């Protein structure tokens, strides 16, 4: 891996998956009650954001 | 007509599809303001997403979008265009499901058929807009490689464009049928359709022996002609 190069796809994918993981963790510890009505769209939005950024990423 | 007076997508300075940048240029306002309006309209009922997708499908790309924008434009044969389409589709689906859970919903009988029809129409529009492109843009270092890929992709583009148009048409027709079915408008047509199917089946059963004999006769005649 080259130093000093920002990989926007990895950053967005990491942030999206991290946000999803935080939501699921908060659900597990009981801070919030995640229903399927909201968990389903969250998973879809995570996958969609990753796909969109991957598709729009420019070749170096 | 000047470039600013033409309503077109400005992909060179746009963030996603260049719709807001093109609208801002046409209206003479900051594209950020147009983007903010689209975000507000998307949050308040989801109309912004639908309008954006429709505008992205309908509006042509600005001729002055620049070489930088054109160089990175995704062709229909590029696998990344599939990723972009799938990503936008998943995000729109997630937004619709959230609005449904919140209660900002006009009903399943209207929204899902509209989604199907809009997806199909966008697909057909994209394919029809891309058919005039002379080549698929692929970043490649070698001239030989570029030539090889250009030929292969242009050949594949024809088949994929046809497939896209067929899929889009099926989605539009399917969306219309789903709308009619969910709104119970197909019940009168069901009786007529059943009668037509029965009549066609009966006619096929009656005419099948003559048709088979005709086909066999023609085949035998052709074989005889080839032999002679």
User: What is the chain-wise order of helices and strands of chain A?
Assistant: HH
Largest interface: A-B, 21 and 23 residues
Radius of gyration of chain A over all CA atoms, rounded: 14 Å
Which term fits the overall shape of chain A?
A: elongated
The helix tally of chain A amounts to 2
What sequence of helices (H) and strands (E) makes up the elements of chain B? HHHHHHHH
Portion in beta strands of chain B: under 5%
Major beta-sheet overview of chain A: none
As a percent range, the share of helical residues of chain A equals over 70%
Q: Based on helices, strands and strand pairing, what is the structural class of chain A?
A: mainly alpha
Unreliable spans of chain A: none
Number of strands of chain B: 0
Query: Rounded to an integer, what's the Rg of chain B over CA atoms?
Result: 25 Å
Share of residues in strands of chain A? under 5%
Number of contiguous helices of chain B? 8
Oligomeric state of the chains in view: heterodimer
Globally, the shape of chain B reads elongated
* Unreliable stretches of chain B: 67-71, 132-154
**How would a textbook summarize the main sheet of chain B?**
none
Describe the structure.
The complex is a heterodimer of chains A (60) and B (228). Chain A is 72% helix and 0% strand. Chain A has 60 residues and is mainly alpha-helical. Chain A has helices at 8-29, 36-56. Chain A starts with 7 loop residues before the first helix and ends with a helix. Chain B is mainly α and 228 residues long. Chain B is 74% helix and 0% strand. In chain B, α1 packs across α2. Chain B is elongated. The relative contact order of chain B is 0.08. Residues 67-71 and 132-154 of chain B have low confidence and may be disordered.
